[in-house]
Every structure is written in C-alpha cells, then in structure tokens.
Amino acid sequence: MRPSVSWKLFCAGWALASTGFCTSSGLLADLQVDLQDWASAYNQSVAAVATLSNTDKIRLISGQSVPSINFEPYTSDDGSQGLESFFYVTSFPESSAMAQTWDPELIKANFHAVGQEFYGKGYTMINGPTIGPQGRTPWSGRLVETLGQDVYLAGIAFAHATEGIREAGIIPCGKHFLLNEQETNRSEVYWSNNAVTVPLNNTAYSSNADDKTLHEAYLWPFYDGVKAGLGAVMCAMNRVNGTYACETPNLLNNVLKTELAFPGFVTPDTSGQHTALGSANAGMDFGATSFWNPQTLLPALANGSLSQARLNDMAIRNLMPYFQLGLNTKTIPPNPPATAPVDVRANHRALVRKAGSAAITLLKNTNNTLPLHNPPSIGIFGSHARPTLIGPGTTMDDVHTHTTWPGHLIFSGGSGISSPSYQITPYDALLSKALQDGTQLMWAMDGDLSIIPYTAVTGTMGTSAAPTFAGYASAVSTCLVFINAWSGEGHDRSELRNIPQDKMILTVAQNCANTIVVINTVGARLLDAWIDHPNITAVLYSSLLGEQSGNAIIDVLYGAVNPSAKLIHTIARNESDYPVPICMTADCDFTQDNVYLDYKYFDAHNITPRYEFGFGLSYTTFNYSVPPAISYVNDSALAQPIPTGELIPGGKADLWDEVMRITTYITNTGDRDGAEVAQLYVSFPEEADQPVRQLRGFQKVFLRSGEKGLVEFGLRRRDLSFWDVGRQEWVLARGVYRFWVGASSRDLRGWVEYVVA
Ligand SMILES: *[C@@H]1O[C@H](CO)[C@@H](O)[C@H](O)[C@H]1NC(C)=O
Ligand SMILES: *[C@@H]1O[C@H](CO)[C@@H](O)[C@H](O)[C@H]1NC(C)=O
Ligand SMILES: *[C@@H]1O[C@H](CO)[C@@H](O)[C@H](O)[C@H]1NC(C)=O
Ligand SMILES: *[C@@H]1O[C@H](CO)[C@@H](O)[C@H](O)[C@H]1NC(C)=O
Ligand SMILES: *[C@@H]1O[C@H](CO)[C@@H](O)[C@H](O)[C@H]1NC(C)=O
Ligand SMILES: *[C@@H]1O[C@H](CO)[C@@H](O)[C@H](O)[C@H]1NC(C)=O
Ligand SMILES: *[C@@H]1O[C@H](CO)[C@@H](O)[C@H](O)[C@H]1NC(C)=O
Ligand SMILES: *[C@@H]1O[C@H](CO)[C@@H](O)[C@H](O)[C@H]1NC(C)=O
Ligand SMILES: *[C@@H]1O[C@H](CO)[C@@H](O)[C@H](O)[C@H]1NC(C)=O
Ligand SMILES: *[C@@H]1O[C@H](CO)[C@@H](O)[C@H](O)[C@H]1NC(C)=O
C-alpha cells in the first residue's frame, strides 16, 4: 500500500470537524487521503502551482493557457455517444442502450472507442459519462443519456465507462452533480435586449432531498465513478435545498471532496455558475472568466473573502488529470474544422453493431415467433423503419415539439446527439436480408397513406392490396411495425405512449396474425394499448442504437444474435403507476418518492408492472440451481459495522472490500447458445430501512446449449450498508439479510439468508 499524502481539503470558511466534515465555523483543514494512482500527479500539480503567480492561477482555473508550465486549456465536448458535430466520426449507442446490455466489459470498450475518437479530433475531455438524472420520474427528458434507473447497475456501468474514457487518454467528466432530475425549469431563462437582462417567470427548481435519500438514491454511483478515476465532475444547473448546486458547500466540499475524496476539479454546467465567491468557496474549481478574473479574485484574496489556500487548491485540482493522464507529455492532435477529412472511425462500426444487438430486450415471443425463419413475405410499417432528413450534428432541438421522430431514430437531443456519417435503417438491413432469402416485401412507412391516390396502386393481377396499413397487413405473412419515442436535453417528455403509433400497431395487428413490434425509445414506453393482443406475437424494446441500428435489430430478429438485454427501467401498465410527474413548482420535494425510485416504488406499493426492471427473454431458456449458496463470508469484517479504512478516492477503502459471496449455477436448457444476466437482489434487516429488495449483483454469462456455468456475486461492504444519518457513515445493519437470485426483479428463483450478528 502506498503511503498517504496529506491532501489539503480547503473548507474555505468552513472547518473540518472531528467527524471529518467541513462545518460552518472555521478555517481550512487537512484531510489524509491515500491518493493511490493520483499521488504522483498530486506532487507534480503542487510543484507546478508553486511556481505560478496568482494571476496565472486565475488563468488556469478559468480555461486559459499558462505558458510558463506549458498548460493549454482542456478542450471538451458533450457526447457519450460520440462527437456531436463532425464529419468522419462514429455515432455510438446512447448510454442507456449501453446500460441495457448489462455487460461491463462491452460498456468499457464502447466508451474507450468514444474516447479514442475525441482524442483523434483534438479533445482532452468528454462531458460525460452521465449519471444524473437518476430517474425520479420517467418523464425526465435525459434518461436516454444515462445509465439506467438502478444505482447499483448505474454505478458499475459508470465505473466501466469512466475507465474506458480514461484509458483512451481523455478526462472523464462525470455529470450531473447532483439531483438534476428534470429539464423543466432547470435554469432561469433570461430575456435580454442588450440594455437589461431580466429573468422570465421561471426559476431554477430546487431539489430538496433528505440526507438518506441523497446518499442512497442519488450519490451512490458517484462513489464508483470517483473510484474509477473521474478527473472532473460537472455540477448541475438546478438548486439543491434552495442553493444552486454549484454553490452548495455541503454538496461539493463535504460530500464530493471529503466523503468521496474526489481529487479532480469541479466544473459547472452551462449557466451553473452564478457568483465569483459563492462558487469558489463552495468547492467549484473551474469557472467562467466573467466571474473569475483578476478584477474579481485579486481583491477577494486581499480582503480574505477568498483564501490563498483555496485558490491554490483550485489550481492544483485543475492540474490533477493533466498530469495523471500525461497530457503534459503528449502532443494532442489539433482540433480540426468540423468537415475536415480527419477520419477517426477506425472499425468502431463493428463495435456499435455488437453493442446495439446486445442492447435489445425481447419482451414477448409467443410460441417462438422469433427468430424469423425465412418468412415468405414481410410487411414493413411505420416511418421509424426508414431514413428521413437528419445528418451529422443535426441538433434535434429543432424538433422538440415532437414526441416521436418521423424517421429512424438513432440519437436524442442536446448533449445526447451524435454525428453519424451514415445510418443503417431497419429498411436497409431488411432489404439485404430479403434479397438473400427471396422474401417478398411490402412497405407502408409513412404515417398518412391517404395522400396516395388509391387507383394509382390498385392492380388487376390479384396481387395488390388496398394501400392502407390494414390492406398491406392482410397481404403478408409477417408484419414488422417500427415505432420510436423522442426527448432530450432541455425537453422533458409529455407522454409515455403515443396514440397515432398505438393505433397503427392495432390496425396492423387486427389484420395480421403475426405482428412483431420493434421499439426504440428514450425511456419507459407504455405498451398496454396493445401488448395483450393475440396477433402481437413478439416485441423488441431498446434505447437509441447509433449508426448500425438497423443491422443490430435485424441481427436479433433473424437470430444471428440471441437477445440477452434486460430492462433498465420498469414499464408500467399506466402512467399513474409511476411515483411522480415532472415538478412544476420552484421547490421539488423528494418526499413522497425519496429512495423509492423505479422498481423500488412498485415493490413498496405492491403495484404490478407490465414488465419489471431486469426483465428480458432469450431464444433459449435458463435454469437456476436453487437455493443459491453462500460461498464466502468474512465474519470479522461483518462484525465491524462502520468502515474504518483509510480514505481513498471513492471513500473509505474498506467500503470496497468483498465481505460475502453468493453463488449459483445456471444451465442453458434450450437448444440455442445464449447469454443470461443473472441478478442478485438483497432484502436488508429492518434496522437499515431499505426498499423491499435492491439489486446488489449481476453477471452476464454466455452458455452453449446444454452448458452449465457458475455465477458468483461478490458483495462489497458498501453493498450491504445503509446510510446512517446520525453517524454520517455507511453502516452494516445487524439482523437477517436475504439474498435472492433471479432473472429479473420479480422473477426470483431462490434465496438464502444470512444473519449478521
Ligand atoms: C510525493 O511527494 C512526497 C513528499 O515529497 C513523497 O514522499 C512521495 O514519495 C511522492 N510521491 C510520488 C508518487 O511521487
Ligand atoms: C411574467 O409575469 C408577468 C406578470 O406576473 C406577466 O405580465 C408576463 O407576461 C409574464 N412573462 C412571461 C414571459 O410569461
Ligand atoms: C416551470 O415551467 C413551467 C413550464 O414551462 C412553467 O409554467 C412554470 O411557471 C415554471 N415554474 C417555475 C417555478 O418556474
Ligand atoms: C438538504 O436538506 C436536508 C433536510 O434538512 C438535509 O438532510 C440534506 O442533507 C440537505 N442536502 C444538502 C446537499 O445539503
Ligand atoms: C472583499 O472583496 C470582494 C471582491 O471585491 C468583495 O466582493 C467583498 O464584498 C469584499 N469583502 C469584504 C468583507 O470586504
Ligand atoms: C401457441 O401454441 C399453442 C400450442 O401449439 C397453441 O395452442 C396456441 O394457439 C398458439 N398461440 C398462438 C398465438 O399462436
Ligand atoms: C388476427 O389476425 C387475423 C388475420 O390473420 C384476423 O382475422 C383476426 O381477426 C385477428 N385477431 C384479432 C383479435 O384482431
Ligand atoms: C392512467 O394514468 C392516467 C394519468 O395519470 C390517469 O389519468 C388515469 O386515470 C389512469 N388510468 C387508470 C386505468 O388507472
Ligand atoms: C431446474 O432447476 C430446478 C431446481 O434447481 C430443478 O428441480 C429442475 O429439475 C431443473 N429443470 C431443468 C429443466 O433442468
Ligand atoms: C476480512 O476482513 C478483515 C477486516 O476487514 C480483513 O483484514 C481481512 O483481510 C479479510 N479477510 C479476507 C480473507 O479477505
């Protein structure tokens, strides 16, 4: 183990109390942190900052070059799904699609490839991965950009995404910190006529969550991100408990920098900074020149309202990822013009196709309708099957009044846009397959077929059908209906179902005994208008899949890929089943829902979902050997309720120790090879005051037909702990823990108990 270095934690007008947290009554204090693989970067940063004048430090923390230490400001862009506005870049799946794979190594590979493209286009930082919104409400417009509605899954995915980016030599900037749960009223909208700037009648909403909710339901994944090496964290636009997130000392100084020992810098989301000193003293480290410049900060230093130590700390934190990633020793490629022929795509298309097919969940498959076996004729329905006007860097914001997109949808809006150099639509992919197989196609991909004169398409040979969805549906053996749902940054959802789409599906189903529905959606999409229709024999459901979307879908439809993705959110039967709608008031109190996000709310209130969190079918079947076994227990670790380890980036080191292991065997009992995502849910002792069951382990295992495989769930101390508000610690409860193994949050196959004495 490396020696601890003394990390100066600057509470800036706050002091470190005996509990290890900043309090409102004192000066700065030191925090002992074992910086692990940041230690050398810390030494280099301290040494470099020691040579700088205060004016240079101010340049450093406000995005300007500092020639004396060869520092060039970071260049950053949004785009966990690829660069936003360039030619010759790859359009990757949205983050929510990556989470839906439940495959950490694939997530890491995907983000690594994204990072390589950023590097190749001259960038040093990605504004991502994105972890908040966490999913308080399914109407939240940006869940498509995030890693699912369960904190454990999101945390594992966040860590792997962070590692992938970091290993590509790019700074991962985790966002948004914190409680940025909706787009509506996320910031003031100002009106300006050059003479005056006045806020319009809305205000940045305040997310008011208690300390337990904050820790257990929202902060959790940031532990994983910081442990995995986040170099930056983006504070959010919204307020928390009435104060802007970027100006809340408890959030930045205490929670992020002390409890999690985050060693990098905090940077604001657009318009997240509101004052010079409020932000600096709350723990923001990188800011705008309009707030942070020699005219504002030098007088503040002189009169003590900003301490010298805090300014040094800000400068050091800005340099930490610079040295850690060796950016000081590299020649970063130049940032080319958007259309310049700098091709950074490599063979990432293969990865995008693989990830896309791994992200598609099979929800329904009556009598093994899928995979398709050489269907004689196929009808293709819905505009989501074909291309429409959209191209590299299209800001989908222009279409924000729409809730669906009249063409194949492969990315979302705002920071969820990508810049495809082409796209494979389902129509394109089906066409090649039909040519190979000799399948007869019919296609009705426009919503309004009444514009086609009936006589123009009525034949006389007995082969023609009425040019309507019903007519075409009744003329083919297999019907494929494609639908999507759109939302994005700045635009929450106004619906979770779409009436014209549902009508199209029903019309086709009433006329076609083999109707298969394919959905690409930004979040939960209700299916109850038609899901029980006997002619709807199969349903595929996924997020937005990037440029290879059509190939990925066809790979699953025809069985080249056996589906293995599981839902990352609950699909309810009705809107009213979800905990809360979008908050329209200035204060958003997280009281009714508190820690009960997604399936935890459905479990707590005994609400039957249509498809539960974790659900997903396969073309094969899996059997679990039950009950599961407890194969390892560290009794001496469990005997100690509170972590006692040294602080490392990611919290106290022993929070990460494996304290128990649960095992089971899974057998592929069907006649196809395939992968199963085995899931572990934990019921806590009463003392912990936790939801009915929570995901605390998963493993995706690939098994050949007939093969039996061992699944092991390692439980870390933190996985069995609750946040004790009084003690301000993660505490292992005393009592009976029950460990459930299953194929979803409701398809539980067996359990085993253990009493922590
Ligand atoms: C950092 O500096 C300290 C004090 O000078 C030294 O003890 C330590 O070995 C250095 N660590 C690294 C990783 O360079
Ligand atoms: C803001 O409110 C005032 C009255 O309270 C009203 O006159 C004005 O039209 C409102 N502005 C907007 C943009 O809604
Ligand atoms: C929030 O946004 C809605 C819709 O734009 C608006 O009607 C409402 O006044 C806003 N509320 C606040 C508190 O700003
Ligand atoms: C917000 O207020 C609640 C209730 O007082 C408190 O538990 C919580 O810690 C506060 N959150 C932050 C980030 O200060
Ligand atoms: C110190 O200087 C800053 C920056 O000029 C100013 O905003 C602040 O009010 C001053 N504080 C005191 C106590 O004089
Ligand atoms: C599925 O197969 C069963 C048994 O062959 C049959 O009774 C049932 O009608 C089939 N269902 C559909 C929707 O085809
Ligand atoms: C199912 O499709 C067939 C046409 O193949 C149709 O006759 C039947 O009415 C449909 N069933 C329902 C419930 O709509
Ligand atoms: C479904 O949800 C909507 C919107 O919350 C509500 O108005 C309606 O009553 C609900 N319907 C049922 C059957 O619960
Ligand atoms: C599945 O597992 C159960 C319990 O482990 C066992 O009783 C059953 O025979 C198995 N079924 C098959 C088809 O292997
Ligand atoms: C069990 O936990 C203790 C205390 O956390 C630790 O020192 C020990 O190394 C662990 N034992 C094993 C076998 O992991």
Automatic annotation (TrEMBL):
<dbReference type="InterPro" id="IPR050288">
    <property type="entry name" value="Cellulose_deg_GH3"/>
</dbReference>
<dbReference type="GO" id="GO:0008422">
    <property type="term" value="F:beta-glucosidase activity"/>
</dbReference>
<feature type="domain" description="Fibronectin type III-like">
    <location>
        <begin position="676"/>
        <end position="745"/>
    </location>
</feature>
<keyword id="KW-0732">Signal</keyword>
<dbReference type="Pfam" id="PF01915">
    <property type="entry name" value="Glyco_hydro_3_C"/>
</dbReference>
<dbReference type="Pfam" id="PF00933">
    <property type="entry name" value="Glyco_hydro_3"/>
</dbReference>
<keyword id="KW-0136">Cellulose degradation</keyword>
<dbReference type="InterPro" id="IPR001764">
    <property type="entry name" value="Glyco_hydro_3_N"/>
</dbReference>
<dbReference type="Pfam" id="PF14310">
    <property type="entry name" value="Fn3-like"/>
</dbReference>
<comment type="similarity">
    <text>Belongs to the glycosyl hydrolase 3 family.</text>
</comment>
<feature type="signal peptide">
    <location>
        <begin position="1"/>
        <end position="17"/>
    </location>
</feature>
<dbReference type="InterPro" id="IPR013783">
    <property type="entry name" value="Ig-like_fold"/>
</dbReference>
<keyword id="KW-0325">Glycoprotein</keyword>
<dbReference type="InterPro" id="IPR036881">
    <property type="entry name" value="Glyco_hydro_3_C_sf"/>
</dbReference>
<dbReference type="InterPro" id="IPR026891">
    <property type="entry name" value="Fn3-like"/>
</dbReference>
<dbReference type="GO" id="GO:0030245">
    <property type="term" value="P:cellulose catabolic process"/>
</dbReference>
<keyword id="KW-0624">Polysaccharide degradation</keyword>
<keyword id="KW-0326">Glycosidase</keyword>
<protein>
    <recommendedName>
        <fullName>beta-glucosidase</fullName>
        <ecNumber>3.2.1.21</ecNumber>
    </recommendedName>
</protein>
<dbReference type="InterPro" id="IPR002772">
    <property type="entry name" value="Glyco_hydro_3_C"/>
</dbReference>
<keyword id="KW-0378">Hydrolase</keyword>
<dbReference type="InterPro" id="IPR036962">
    <property type="entry name" value="Glyco_hydro_3_N_sf"/>
</dbReference>
<comment type="pathway">
    <text>Glycan metabolism; cellulose degradation.</text>
</comment>
<keyword id="KW-0119">Carbohydrate metabolism</keyword>
<dbReference type="InterPro" id="IPR017853">
    <property type="entry name" value="GH"/>
</dbReference>
